[in-house]
Amino acid sequence: MVFATRDLTDRGGGGSATALGPLVDTFGRAVSYLRVSVTDRCDFRCVYCMSEHMTFLPKPDLLTLEELDRLCSAFINRGVRKLRLTGGEPLVRRDVMTLFRSLSRHLETGRLEELTVTTNGSQLARYAADLAACGVKRINVSIDTLDADKFRAITRWGDLGKVLDGVKAAQKAGIRVKINAVALKDVNEHEIGSMMEWAHGEGHDLSLIEVMPLGEVGAERVDQYLPLSRVREQLSERYTLIDIDYRTGGPARYMQVKETGGRLGFITPLTHNFCEGCNRVRVTCTGTLYMCLGQEDAADLRSPLRASPDDGVLQAAIDSAIFRKPKGHDFIIDRQTRQPAVHRHMSTTGG
Ligand code: SAM
């Protein structure tokens, strides 16, 4: 690997906290997975994720790429083995490849098992080869429909053709692609079988996600929400779905589809709560640590990060936050519950 890049590790780069132990919460769950939202901005405005007119954070509030590197490295020093960069749209953050390149050093030492990304695919054709060169082996690409007009309607601004070109570029670069689709009542509900056949035909796993009540999006969640229990019933009329033990370290439960030979994952934050096995925490682009996607409690890591070039203060803040990691989330979507579970959008916390 040859990179002409500035070195993000010049300023700290992870400190010297190697003697500190792993992060284990009060329920005995070890935190081994960090998801980092590197920007709250996105070039799409998916109807279930954002409102059409979003106010984004002022740029000076964001952690610099150097600070993001230092923060990620601090978690890796505490036993985080899997790191996912997300957003907003991570690939629209200026110079984001510098961060990937820098973080890839932890793959080379073996301290990090996986560096990955969740993307809407809009910039993937441009970056796929660079991502592969940074050791990214698997990525998630969000595609909710294969109908170009519907895709534009869901994303408000997206171009399906460009995203599919990005998926092809990733495949060409040797990256495994998992397609993520949010199951949306009446929108892609009757297309899920054909999306699955397409994904499996192209060699991709497909994961379906239940819509979560995160942030005001200017629409009724109850009109969007499609329980995956219903999707399973509908798919079972045409396909043989066999539950399997395959896991990727996330909350998805997988099935093998006999007719296509592919894997189908269900992420069911509403119909089946999976918090007992939660191994993850999330950091926003301003350095706010959320110990649970569905709860408001958070810890500011930006101040301790900036307080000292040594990681001692930062590590103490991480410890005290992990101690408060809650047992789980309580999402409800029904006609009576009109408030979101939390006020922040998925794009803030990082999906
Ligand atoms: N821009 C990237 C993308 O599109 O994948 C990464 C960020 S996006 C917030 C991550 C994932 O969260 C996407 O798959 C998106 O569909 C999903 N998502 C956003 N809002 C959601 C919600 N309210 N409920 C469930 N999934 C949501």
Name some characteristics of this structure.
disordered N terminus, 351 residues, 29% helix, 12 helices, 17% strand, 12-stranded mixed sheet
Give an overview in words.
- By secondary structure, the chain is an alpha/beta fold.
- The chain is built from twelve helices and twelve strands.
- A twelve-stranded mixed β-sheet has the order 7-8-9-6-5-4-3-2-1-10-11-12.
- Helix 4 (124-133) links the parallel strand 3 (114-119) and strand 4 (138-142).
- Helix 1 packs parallel to helix 2 and helix 4 (124-133) runs parallel beside helix 6 (160-172).
- The longest helix has 13 residues, at 160-172.
- The chain is globular.
DSSP helix fraction:
25-40%
Shape: globular
State the low-pLDDT regions, or none.
Answer: 1-6, 10-18
Largest sheet: 12 strands, mixed
Task: Report the oligomer.
Answer: single chain
Structural class: alpha/beta
Distance between the termini: 30 Å
Order of helices and strands: EHEHHEHEHHEHEHHEEEEEEHHH
Mean pLDDT: 91
Tell me the radius of gyration: 20 Å
Count the DSSP helices: 12
Bound molecules: S-adenosylmethionine
Strand order of the largest sheet: 7-8-9-6-5-4-3-2-1-10-11-12
Q: Find the count of extended strands (DSSP E, 2+ residues).
A: 12
Q: Per DSSP, what share of the residues sits in E-state strands of 2 or more residues?
A: 15-25%
Catalytic activity: GTP + AH2 + S-adenosyl-L-methionine = (8S)-3',8-cyclo-7,8-dihydroguanosine 5'-triphosphate + 5'-deoxyadenosine + L-methionine + A + H(+)
Binding site for [4Fe-4S] cluster 2: 275, 278, 292
Keywords: 4Fe-4S, GTP-binding, Iron, Iron-sulfur, Lyase, Metal-binding, Molybdenum cofactor biosynthesis, Nucleotide-binding, S-adenosyl-L-methionine
EC number: 4.1.99.22
